[in-house]
User: Fold these one by one.
Assistant:
Number 1:
Amino acid sequence: MKLLRIKAIAKKELIQVWRDPLSLAMAFLMPVMLLFLFGYAITLDVNNLTTLVYDLDKSSFSRELVAQFRESGYFTVVEHVHEHREIDRYLDTGRAQVALSIPEDFSENIRADRKAQFQVIVDGSDSNTATIALGYITAITERYSQSVKGIHITPLIDARSRVWYNPELESRNYIIPGLIAVIMAVIAALLTSLTIAREWERGTMEQLISTPVKTPELITGKLIPYFLIGFIDMILSILMTVFVFGVPLKGNVLLLMALSSVFLFGGLSLGILISVAAKSQLVASQFAMVATFLPAFLLSGFMYAISNMPQALQIVTYFIPARYFVTILKGIFLKANTLGFLMFETVLLTVFGLAVFALANMKFKKKVQ
């Protein structure tokens, strides 16, 4: 390959992008907007559970129980009702997710050293939230029971738990790094999915075909500008992750950028392949979105654990490059993993990029069809 030809193609493509406001917006604004949107919208933390109180006892014991729920930080008491049927109305309309129904003999049973019961009704339409809420309720109830009786139980087994890598159990520390992989997978493929198709639609491909530029030179020249754009997008995403969302970056930044470059090369090559096959900007962009966003979002381990998927889908995930990049990002951000720990993912991403690049070269023919 002659570097002069590659430089000429890259310069032409860079000028084309610079003169196209839509391409510039997609290149630089879309990653930032998507990161803001998904970063703030997606959370696995369960708090601010809207709670309804139906207190028939109206004693200091019942008020203390309600206070325990309110002060836990997970439950927000939105209303005290006076009739049981109001609970149905609040839960049916979604104005409350949890209802506490405290009977008249609640304090009497506590004073008489009898088992005191109260009813908890949880909206189970969201099973994940309901399961977590029940865990909170159990913990609060046990703590309240011990505080009322002044009982301190010394357990026979003292299990001391430590959470590594994300000690605060903040879901954003887990979600945002994986979100970068999803966004960059989409952006990389979208950027280059329009390149070859644009030439065919505008009738300029015939001029390129008539030049001595060879296929590898043409594809490489078209990749370079978008690789630089993708690299800048990656830097912006990392800066936002650290300084806007507060996710700690514990690993080596240079390693992160190097492995991100490997992933970008594969994603951009996939976009070129789609563009070569589609020959239409509309079809290419739509196919690039479907081929990258859905697999990266659903099958990369970004949101859902791959081990919980059916066996057939687990096999499919091995063909999703975003799966390996999610592992790399989380490993470097949260665990400070070195290349030795990420060699498997790095090798597979490299193989994917080279294979797709070679396939794009084989698919493109320098002739009018």
Note: DSSP finds 15 helices and four strands in the chain.
Number 2:
Amino acid sequence: MTKPRGRRAAPEPDPGAPSQVPVVPSARFPAKKEEETPWRRCAITRNRRPKAYLLRFVVDPGGRLVEDVTGRLPGRGIHVMPDRKRVTALLTRHKMAPEERDLLLARLGHSLEQRLLDGVGLARRTGGCRKGLREVEELIKRGVRPLLLLAEDAESLRMRLEPWLQEIEGVEIVTVPDQERLGSIWSGRPVVLVAVIHPGVGERIRADAARWWSFTREG
């Protein structure tokens, strides 16, 4: 049966919606009203999310799609869910050649990781984070409720932390790149756990971690 013209497909079920399974382990969307934080609709799924949790593209003067990881490029943005399947669908819709598409996907994965690590570096430079389990324990004892960043290759520590943190309200763990890449922000030695105490930078890192995790976990 032919679809009636002028009607858009219904949104896909959204596994990352606030009331369902989160995109990043132990992280959910900010509990803000839509008028307090901008939301956008995914061009592929038609689902809505906070803008910071989507990927943005713009069309360059030559008519080609360009990724905009920072969200600062001029022009009307096209937003899409931060996973390879939906991004690939968007690029295919805009008739991007397979070779160019593969290069863009590889570049986008690197850019998302770098954006996330840059946010952690910003937190460090502004004195807005601490590293190490001992520092985390001291912060929580003092009543501070940081955003915890756990290296993706430290799952054994996650298993130890989560039962303890279940008894403490207001503390989240999000996954970030491995110990070596996280440690590159400090002296170059591996870093497993970071506590972000700066709320503004923490929210940026939280959104960037969600995008990086979703994109890199899709084949």
Note: The first helix runs from residue 84 to 93.
Number 3:
Amino acid sequence: MSKKDDMSIISLLARSKKRISVLKSLEKEDKIPSKISKDIKDNSNHVSKYLKTLKEAELVECLNEDDKRYRFYSITDKGKYYLDKVENEYSDD
């Protein structure tokens, strides 16, 4: 991965604490969007958008893509790597 791609993903996460929260929610176990929504205290429409963006960046994956109503999502190794990187190197805290 190029440095430009690397910084693009870091920027994607750093711009949205909610995307980071979704990744954190998936760190412990695979979940459906409604459970993620409860974990991060945001509505399910927003969570679906966060998941779509994170999936496009290959930070999460859908484990049962064919199931339209009860999809489980999982954080990828790439997602774990960038979550750790953003939390440790680029957090505002």
Note: The mean pLDDT is 92.
